[in-house]
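Following the same procedure, backbone shapes were mapped to integers, as reproduced here:
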Amino acid sequence: MWETSMKGLVSLIRKSTPSSFTYICEKNGDSLSDKMDELACFAPGMLALGSLGYGPGDREKMLTLAEEIYWRCRR
């Protein structure tokens, strides 16, 4: 279930321009909204902890994604 959920989450990831911040789109029905609320800032911790269940290559991808979203939340 975790891997299925993470595939869904990754499908919502976008990068802003020109700042190139990584963020999670909000999904409402079939449409995506280019905004991220403060509750999405729990995702980096969730991704970092969940990365422990992956092999080295996928673990690194999840940790990198967690770090990118974390930086967006800090800004």
Remarks:
- Residues 40 and 63 are 16 Å apart (CA to CA).
- The first helix runs from residue 2 to 10.
